[in-house]
């Protein structure tokens, strides 16, 4: 692939945009999400149209040497405006104030875009330059002003966005703060990009040649900046969903020992409906929790509340806090009940137990603690061994 330093960031940003495309119809009225989509589209366009191969193609199609210059500068200006608009909507506040600030920002940068094309139309730039236009035409009337204008507009946006994001990042936490920090780093790199460009252009004004800064150093800095900024805007949107999914998978896995104990033993409740591999983890977790609670209902006649109290006391004496002790006691009672039910294949306990049967475990929110205690607790293991050695009550 030609010009990878331009096309690779463009592909990454287009991929991020494509991932959001299916949901755009439902979220189009949300100004925040709409601005994120616009930002990704504009950012990918910046790199695509700034690639020398694309520049040459656009110049050839239009028949105007260097027509890509005001086009790329305008897209870059639109990207700067999109970032500011996104920050305005992202921070929240009164909707009317956000709309006014958005309108002022769009108006100001629209004027800059019109000025860029106007200055280019007034300039005389007949020699096509694919990589070093900024420095080659640094002393050309109107082209010089066009170059300085786009750099100033870009610098102002970078400074304002960095200031807003940094001030906001110290007030928030979690995924939002991580995203804001990445944006700040990205915009600091943008300021490095601007400084490099200013230096190369100013060197031409002073009669020196530092073009390598503009053609060699600036593009990779801009690429890294775009990746960081794009990631910073996306992470707070996808991060919470990732965290929720991770917590659900973790809970699903931790409930495994209790699930297998209840549904792998003889006389256990019927097998759960098998779910497709693509089923959401939240649905799988709900099914596992429901299956465990259903298993408790079938064990209720075999629960020994006195054993529960003894196990809780033993756990407390071993240093467990009240919540952990309760989980150990629940797990111990379940272990003994499973053994008792296995010794009662005819279900005599069910016949002899009325409405006053020992209740099942009601605390669904503590299932993970019970499952982990069932697998790890020495107290539960001791209860399991004692229950296995005890005499068959229902024989």
Topology:
Blueprint: H1 4-20, H2 24-27, H3 31-50, H4 52-62, H5 68-90, H6 95-122, H7 133-136, H8 143-169, H9 174-205, H10 211-254, H11 256-264, H12 281-299, H13 305-317, H14 322-342, H15 348-352, H16 367-376, H17 378-389
Instruction: Give the percentage of residues in beta strands.
Output: under 5%
Work out the count of structural domains. 2
Number of helices: 17
Average of per-residue pLDDT values: 83
Looking at the overall shape, the CATH architecture of the largest domain is Up-down Bundle
Q: What would you call the structural class?
A: mainly alpha
What is the H/E string?
HHHHHHHHHHHHHHHHH
Main CATH class of the largest domain: Mainly Alpha
What summary fits the major beta sheet?
A: none
Q: Cα-atom Rg, whole angstroms? A: 33 Å
The rough form would be described as elongated
Runs in which pLDDT lies below 50 for 5 or more consecutive residues are: 354-360
Distance between the termini: 78 Å
What percent of residues adopt helix (DSSP H or I)? over 70%
* CATH fold descriptor of the largest domain: Rhopdopsin 7-helix transmembrane proteins
Give an account of the 3D structure.
The chain folds into two domains: 4-243, Rhopdopsin 7-helix transmembrane proteins; 255-389, no CATH class. The chain contains 17 helices and no strands. By secondary structure, it is an all-alpha fold. The longest helix has 44 residues, at 211-254. Helices cover 76% and strands 0% of the residues.
């Amino acid at each position: 692939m030609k010009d990878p330093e331009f096309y690779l960031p463009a592909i990454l940003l287009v991929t991020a945009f494509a991932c959001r495309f299916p949901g755009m119809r439902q979220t189009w009225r949300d100004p925040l999400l709409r601005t994120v989509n616009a930002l990704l589209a504009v950012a990918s366009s910046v790199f695509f149209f700034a690639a020398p191969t694309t520049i040459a193609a656009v110049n050839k199609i239009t028949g105007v040497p260097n027509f890509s210059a005001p086009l790329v500068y305008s897209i870059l200006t639109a990207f700067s405006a999109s970032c500011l608009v996104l920050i305005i909507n992202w921070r929240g506040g009164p909707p009317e104030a956000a709309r006014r600030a958005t309108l002022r920002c769009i108006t100001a940068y629209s004027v800059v875009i019109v000025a860029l094309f106007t200055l280019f139309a007034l300039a005389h730039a007949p020699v096509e330059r694919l990589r070093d236009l900024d420095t080659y035409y640094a002393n050309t009337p109107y082209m010089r002003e066009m170059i300085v204008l786009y750099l100033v507009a870009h610098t102002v946006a970078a400074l304002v966005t960095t200031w807003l994001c940094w001030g906001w990042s110290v007030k928030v936490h979690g995924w939002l703060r991580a995203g804001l920090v990445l944006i700040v780093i990205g915009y600091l790199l943008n300021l490095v990009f601007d400084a490099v460009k200013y230096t190369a252009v100013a060197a031409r004004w002073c009669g020196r040649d530092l073009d390598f800064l503009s053609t060699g150093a600036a593009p990779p800095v801009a690429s890294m900046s775009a990746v960081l900024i794009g990631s910073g805007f996306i992470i707070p949107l996808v991060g919470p969903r990732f965290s929720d999914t991770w917590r659900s998978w973790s809970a699903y896995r931790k409930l495994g020992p209790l699930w297998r104990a209840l549904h792998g033993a003889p006389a256990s409740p019927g097998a759960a409906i098998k779910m497709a591999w693509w089923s959401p983890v939240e649905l799988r977790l709900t099914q596992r929790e429901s299956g465990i609670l259903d298993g408790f209902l079938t064990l209720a006649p075999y629960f020994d509340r006195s054993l529960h109290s003894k196990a809780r006391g033993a756990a407390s004496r071993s240093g467990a806090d009240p919540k952990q002790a309760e989980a150990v006691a629940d797990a111990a009672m379940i272990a003994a009940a499973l053994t008792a039910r296995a010794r009662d294949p005819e279900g005599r306990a069910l016949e002899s137990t009325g409405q006053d049967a020992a209740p099942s475990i009601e605390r669904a929110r503590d299932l993970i603690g019970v499952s982990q205690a069932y697998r790890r607790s020495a107290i539960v293991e001791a209860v399991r061994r004692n229950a296995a050695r005890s005499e068959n009550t229902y024989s």
